[in-house]
Amino acid sequence: MADGAERTTLRPLRPATPRAGSDAGPDRPATGLPRPRRPWLGPGRPVDEAAPEAPTTEPVSAADSTAAADTAADRTAAAGTKRSATTGPSTASGTESGPKTTVEQSTTESGAPSARRRRARFAHAVRLPGPRAAARATRDWSRRPSGRLTLPGVFLLALVAATAAAGALLVPATLDAPRQVAADATADVPDALPGDLPPSGAAPPPGQFPPPTATLPPGVAPPGAAGPAGGRPSDALAGWARDTGAKVGIDPIAMQAYGYAELVLAETDRACGLSWTTLAAIGLVESRHGQANNAQLGADGRAVPEIIGLPLDGQGNRMRIADTDRGELDRDTTYDRAIGPMQFIPTTWQEIGADADNDGRKDPHNIHDAALAAGMYLCKGGRNLTIPGDWWNAILSYNDVRRYAQDVFDAANRYGQASRT
User: Fold this and answer.
1) What whole-number distance in Å separates Cα of residue 73 and Cα of residue 266?
2) Would you state the pLDDT for residue 347?
3) Which distant-in-sequence residues (6+ apart) come within 8 Å of 197 by Cβ?
4) The dihedral formed by the CA atoms of 139, 140, 146 and 152, expressed in degrees to the nearest 10
5) Which pLDDT value is given to residue 272?
6) Mean predicted confidence (pLDDT) in 51-66
7) Which residue has the higher pLDDT, 116 or 168?
8) Are 301 and 357 in contact (CB under 8 A)?
9) What is the dihedral of CA 276, 282, 284, 287, to 10 degrees?
10) Nearest one of 178, 208, 179 to 398, comparing CA atoms
C-alpha cells in the first residue's frame, strides 16, 4: 500500500475523447473513475461526501467490466483478511475474549462487511481483589508459620490497648466519684477539739486512740438470748450501762445498745476489734444519742419522734440521692433522707440493717438495732479497728468528711478516758 491506495493491476488510462461508435459527446459528463479503498475511513463513508459522483449513461466495455470486478474482488478479499487478522475467532455467544479491545462489524453500501477496532476505556487500570478474595488470602496467610506467629501478637496488642484505654477512662472517673457513705455528710456536729488528723499509718499518742473496753461485766447474755429484765439480750448490761453512762454522760439505754453491739461483734467478728467508744462517738455526732430534733429514747430504745434528716437534694453541700425506698423509711418519695439515731441512708440500711432487740423487726429508729448495724458496717471488708489506718478508713467510709472523722475521734477519746476513771 502506498499513500493509502491498495495495490491493483495497472491498466491504461481512458482516452480523453469518446471511443469511436460511442454516443457520448464532448458536452456530456465523463464517467466517474473508481477511487482507491481507504480502510481507516468509516464503513460506508465515501471519500468525498460533499461531491457525490454524478450518474453516467456511458456504456462500459467488457474489458472494463472485468477489471472492475477483479478490483472489487481484491478489495473484498483484503478486507476479509484484515478482519480475520484483527478480530480473531469469536465464540458462539458472540462475545470477545480479549479484555482490552472490541471489534465492530458493519456492512458498506456495496454489501461488503468491514471491521473497525475500538479500544476499551480503562483497560490498563489495575483490578483490585474483592472482599472474598481478600478474606481467602488472609485465611491462607494465617495458616502459614508467619501468620501463626503474627496473629496472636496482634490480638494481644489489641487487648492490651483496649485495657489501657478502658483504664484511662474508668480509673479517673472512679477516683473523682464521691465515696459511698452510710450517713448524711451534712449532719450537724458539736464543736470539736482543735487538732489535725494524725497520719493513718502512725500509732496514735497514748490515751488518744479509743482503748479496748475492759469494763463489760462477765457473764452477759450471748447474742440471740433473752435478758432477764425486758426480754432483750442487752438488758443483761443494764447495771454496767447505768454505772458507765453516769461517768461519760450517756443515757443508760444508749449505753446498753453500744455495749451490746461490741459484745456481738466480738463473738461474730473477733478480728474487727470494735470498741463501744467508737459507736458512742458516732451516736453523739449524728444525733446526740437519739435526742436530735427534740427526740427522746423510749424504754424500748426507739427515738420519738423519729429523727429524719434534711432531703439529700444536692443543696447546701448535701449529696443528691433520689428516692430509693418509696418513702417507707424516710417519709419522702422524692429524695432520700438520713434516718434514725445513727442517721443511716435508706439504701445502706436495706443492706446492713440488723435486729438487736429480737423483736423480729429491723428498725432504723431503734437505737439497739441502729448501733449493731453501725458496728457491722464499720467492720466490713475485714477491717481491724485496733489499727489506726483501718480505724480512720472505717470512719470515713461511714461519712466521708475529715471534720466529721476528727470529731468522732475526739469524742471516742474522751469517752475512753472518762470510762477509766
Assistant:
1) 125
2) 94
3) 392, 402, 405, 406, 409
4) 20
5) 93
6) 47
7) 168
8) yes
9) -130
10) 179
**Count of residues in the chain:** 421
Segment 65-74 shows an average pLDDT of 50
Q: How far apart are CA 31 and CA 238, in angstroms?
A: 150
Q: Can you tell me which residue has the cell 457513705?
A: 181
| Lowest-confidence pick of 29-33, 53-57, 166-170, 366-370 | 53-57
Note whether 32 and 56 are within 8 A (CB).
yes
> Is residue 400 classed exposed, middle or buried when 0-12, 13-18 and 19+ CB atoms within 10 A define those classes?
middle
Asked if residues 234 and 257 have their Cβ atoms less than 8 Å apart, the reply is yes
Name the grid cell of 84: 480475520
Helix or strand (DSSP H, E) at 297: strand 296-297
pLDDT > 90: percent of the chain: 39
pLDDT value at 82 more than 80: no
Instruction: Measure Cα distances from 270 to 46, 273, 385 in Å.
Output: 117, 6, 11
Closest CA to 348 of 314, 317, 312: 312
Give domain limits for the chain: 233-419
The CA distance from 236 to 141, in Å, is 80
Q: Are 261 and 301 in contact (CB under 8 A)?
A: no
In angstroms, rounded to a whole number, what is the distance separating the alpha carbons of residues 16 and 285? 140
